[in-house]
Design brief:
Strand order of the largest sheet of chain A: 1-2
CATH topology of chain A: Macrophage Migration Inhibitory Factor
Structural class of chain A: alpha+beta
Number of helices of chain A: 2
Largest interface: A-F, 24 and 24 residues
CATH class of chain A: Alpha Beta
Shape of chain A: elongated
Oligomer: homohexamer
Chain lengths: ~60, ~60, ~60, ~60, ~60, ~60
């Protein structure tokens, strides 16, 4: 701990590398704790709803 | 926010559409906030345990 | 399972009662499963950030 | 409830069976409640960061 | 990682100590990984709904 | 979405302000999406276990 969990759309491995590095830098600076875990979750557009509509359907419009 | 996360078994896209629409309607009504996010998580029966037994094994019995 | 987790601002017990009842009704209808658990999380406005700003500070403006 | 969620690397179904059985035994003993749900999440090594580095990259070194 | 999160009712510190020790023993045995984090969440009975009813109200009946 | 959840020890409001601002900056840069939500969770040292021991007890030693 601290543990940072990020829920977002699918991204490329290079973006994940950047995300993990930079989120960790921020957390180390704020918490003054070295041991940081980051979990990236990639959500399909048919598993996310925004304001009552699937992301899948919003993209189609 | 509010954000609603639903952990359940795999479902069809038409069920997801209905789930997102109706959960959002409920949340808008109770919270009086328009911006609602819903995350649907689909769990394989080998990743869920009920009362000490994998769902996978309960189904087989 | 299914389990529904709702992250939102603090609400009154009467709103929680309505939220649990109605979210459960939706989940039973979509999943055709009777056993539904709902977890309500109430987040202080100093623990939520929207677009880079604490909810606490947005309210003050 | 109680619900136990385990975030870890991918494991085999036999390990899942053992995990669910033994975690449930512990929870029943401590909480004195029979109804326990366990959710196992398997995370790809490119979706986990430890101390600023993807698990994927740590393994390669 | 692995990280184990337990959602349950409020418990005493002695129960937490036992829970953390025993859940960790199980996880170390199954995953063959030494570094285990456990998070205990204590949920008020007015923030949990079972089958459409607040736990608070079920207890009163 | 994206939503970033941070599990850590209790921190001061000024640290929360910095955390939310900087985590959001990172997420906007990586995801190219403006709408970012951050949730901060503050965990008591008696609700966190590291390697089988409550954080509470580790501090005392």
């Amino acid at each position: 701990m601290p543990t940072i969990t990020v829920e977002g759309p699918p991204i490329k491995v290079e973006q994940k590398r950047e995300l993990v590095k930079k989120l960790t830098d921020v957390a180390v600076k704020v918490y003054k704790i070295e041991h940081i875990t980051v979990l990236i979750r990639e959500n399909s557009s048919e598993n996310v709803g925004i304001n009552g509509q699937l992301l899948l359907d919003r993209k189609r419009e």
